[in-house]
Amino acid sequence: MRLLLATAATLSLAATSLLATVTRTPFGHLPDGMTVDAFTLANVHGVEVRVMTYGATLISVRAPDRNGTGDDIALGFDSFADYLTKARFFGSVVGRYANRIGRGRFTLDGAIVQVTPNSGANHLHGGARGFDKVVWSGEATERDGNPGVIFSYTSADGEEGYPGTLKASVTYTLTPRDELILEYQATTDKATPINLTNHSYFNLAGRGRGDILRHVLTIDADRYTPTDDMQIPTGALTPVGGTPFDFRTPAAIGARIDTDDEQLRRGKGYDHNFVLNASRNEIRHAARAVDPSTGRTLDVATTEPGVQFYAGNNLDATRNGFARRSGFCLETQHFPDSPNHANFPSTILRPGDTYRSKTVFTFGVTK
Questions:
Q1: Residue 143 belongs to a domain
Q2: Is the domain of 233 the same as that of 142?
Q3: Can you give the pTM of this predicted structure?
């Protein structure tokens, strides 16, 4: 297989059917005039992934169904301007700390650290201007002939209240096995918490093609982390057995989502961290989603100890461009509010150490 690096404004998969390609094009401008570029990665099977420098964001994933018909299965926008006005973290890399930190406060090495509260009293997805709202540098790359892009960003000491200058990168690689590999890396000059993830919403029937309630989901987790009424983990690791959170065997997302359950009421549906089975730091299967109508499948593997399953309960067509529950997220991560729970896996990165995390999204079809 050959790799073609290009800067053409358009890409014809038919014309490049024997090539894996990565193409860089302008996508938009920030109010200050800074250019935002998009990279299109394509493999020989017709899978096409588009990502951009703003937020290291996954804009779209075009994948075939059981009949070979392609469609965009990731919620995103054709216009860059929409990413500035319809905020729900669509496809973004979020950090420094994905998910929530209770009251935006934690103790680190004996000192109290206050980060920006931006979700009521709590800190969510990195603060008011997290990694989703900055422009990363982007560079086309290839690994063993596979198209990719590496995004890099330096977060200054004190940004959103976090200690230390953090140098972060995320690499997207598309393989001939229809895998989209995300590899995160970071270093710091002061101890700091870090928890990076990608916040893509998927609808395997196709973007804008109804809700995801008939999608069938499996999550390889025996436990989850219940939350209080502010959606902050209580610290418990609760068995999923006998609850609406048991996805150890395949179940439709909509089968139990509106059950009269306190945890579901707090999240307005599923918006919870699942404690993945198997050992930490080794890549292993985490979840699988199947759309019966098209046969499209999504398998998620990760080195992370948790995955946040979010059913798009707060999406609103008038505000966000997408209707409620028209997409789902499987955000591979460390647990929410880990800096405040000694029994959770640590998220503290120290000088001299390197943060590494890997997640693989595999797109496929079933009969």
A1: yes
A2: no
A3: 0.95
In the annotation, is 331 catalytic?
A: yes
32-59 pLDDT per residue, tens: 999 999 999 999 999 999 999 999 999 9
Domain of 302, CATH number, reads: 2.70.98.10
Determine which one of 123, 331, 334, 341 is catalytic.
331
Does residue 27 fall inside a structural domain? yes
| Selection from 206, 213, 293 nearest residue 252 by Cα | 213
Dist CA 197 CA 97 (whole Å)? 9
Whether 234 and 86 share a structural domain: no
In a domain, 355, yes or no: no
Q: Helices marked H in the chain — which ranges?
A: 80-85, 262-267, 317-320
Tokens (6 digits) for 147: 């198209």
Domain that holds residue 268: 216-348
148-200 pLDDT, tens digit per residue, is 999 999 999 999 999 999 999 999 999 999 999 999 999 999 999 999 999 99
Residue 261 lies in a domain: yes
Q: Quick check: 59 and 38 in contact, CB under 8 A?
A: yes
Identify the active-site residue in 159, 179, 183, 199. Answer: 199
